[in-house]
Structures are given as structure tokens and as C-alpha cells.
């Protein structure tokens, strides 16, 4: 899709919040716009989710469907010169926005009532209408390590945020090479040492257990390690060693979350009032847990007995991943679905 008024700009990716849309273009720039609400079609108030200081909580909100460039994010000043910042991923929560740049820094703006921006909660930081870098993550690593984010996740209607980090020793040399080469790092391109350093964090709203930290909390402004996800291991037949199992994909609903591991195991946690975790219960979970295997239709009593025996031995959900297609799990507002996706 072309962007009106900007020649040669195309939409590469997008993410939607409750009342705003975030676009990532092919030149790694970010644009935002208001989408209105379901009842009136207009915005009654801005929560800073557009990344524009002139659309703060004290100003008239933008009109729906009008695009604005997030100039304070796309460009930065250094030594009295203006440089382009390359954004590689965007993620929109309910009333906040996360952006990941090619150096591994996470930028956030919008509503911070429960700490979704990774900043301390007080009157002055409840709403931040301009991009700010999340710095509270740094003390989780050693001084000689350069922490670099490689993935950010949130969901439409969600007040929680999630991020995957790697760390590298040789801080200064590594950061210098990143600035010179400007290469985007992807999960399937990580070195063995980088894979070993994978660390998963969460912050923001956690009253329904959606942060996966093992407890329930209204607001968590400081990114915390999701210990359960960082401790999942499996035996590697090729290396003959027990190794960490990285996350392949995330899906974040309003108050519940699913992750799919590299071995296609599924873990879920958070709100379960409507049975959206698919575990046969309605109690919420504050820590990631495996999900029971799917109950598929059967035709004969022999098939029922055979599937029951198989289920007893391996009663956990593993998504199908074949050459032609794969299964994908998606968390909605209060529901969950699994669909088939062609390769």
C-alpha cells in the first residue's frame, strides 16, 4: 500500500491498538494515525499513543484516518547533525506503542498508567506523548555486556509488553560495528552464544497474570525476566546436549498470552475466565504452562482408545508443522483460535 503524500513509501508492516494504527514503511520509518472508537468514530482523548507532542492528553486528539510521521522517532540529532533512525518492528498495545530499532533499542510512547512504557509510574509519566527509550532493562545485564532487543510483542487491547533480548560481551566494539553495518538481527541468524543468552522480559499490566511472572500485579514498570520461559530445555539429537528451547512466535490477547516454541510446543498463561487457555479450567494462570492436546473428532471406539493412550503419554499441545502447511495459535480478546497457514 502506498502512503499518500510520500513518494516511493510503502507499508511494510502495521499494528493496531484500541484507537490507533501504527505503520512501518519500507524505508524503516514509522507513521501513526487515529482510528476512532466503536461508539462515536471519534477520539474523546489522546493518550499519547501517536508519538507526537502536539497530540498529548491536553490537546485536541487527531482526526481519524489521517497519517502523521513520528519525526522524533524517525530522526535524531547528534553533534549538531540530523541522522535517520531505522525502525525494524512496531507493536501497538491498547493505548501505547512500542518500536524496535536496528541497534536493539526499544522506544515507547503513550499511556503508562500500569508501566507499559517501562518507566516508573507517577503523575509526570502517566502519559508520555513522545518516544522515549526503555532504559530500565540495562541493570539486568553485566556492565561488560551490550543488551540488544531482537523482538517486541504486545496485543490489541493489551496493557502488557514483552521483549526478547540477547547480550554480547565486547560492548563498545559490538555497538560500533552495529552502527557501521546497520544489520537487522533475526532469531534464525543468531550465533550459538547469542542463542544461549536469549532472555525474555515482560512489564506493564499484570492483574490477570498476563506477565507470566508467577504473581498478579496491577502495574509492573520495570521489565522482569519470565523465568519459566528462560528455563525450558530439550535434548538436541545433533549436538547430543540439553539446550535451551527458544520461542518461535508470540500471540498476545487482551489479558492472555500464548507462545510457540521452536519444537512447536505451546505455553499459555493469563486470564482464563472464558476458558481461553484451553486447559479445561477457568482459573487464571500467572506462569506459563503447557496446554493439553486438541480434542479431535473420532469415528470408532478403537480410535478413541488409541488416541486416549497417546494422549496419556504426551498430553500437551504440539502444533503441526509440515512442508505444505503449519498450525498457528492466535489469542483474541477473550478467545483463542488455531488455524492452518500455507508455507
Q: Please, could you describe this protein's structure?
A:
One of its GO terms (cellular component) is mitochondrial inner membrane. RCC repeats lie at residues 104-169, 198-263. InterPro entries: MitoProcess-Associated (IPR053245), RCC1/BLIP-II (IPR009091), Reg_chr_condens (IPR000408). This protein is mostly beta strands. It is built from five helices and 22 strands. Strand 7 (87-92) and strand 8 form a beta hairpin. The protein is globular. The two termini are 23 Å apart.
Largest sheet: 4 strands, antiparallel
Q: What does the average pLDDT come to?
A: 88
Distance between the first and last residues' Cα: 23 Å
Give the topology string: H per helix, E per strand: EEEEHEEEEEEEEHHEEHEEEEEEHEE
List the uncertain runs: none
Based on secondary structure, the structural category is mainly beta
What is the tally of helical segments? 5
Can you count the beta strands? 22
- Strand order across the biggest sheet? 1-2-3-4
Assign a percent range to the helix content: 10-25%
Query: What global shape is seen?
Result: globular
Radius of gyration: 21 Å
Strand content: 35-45%
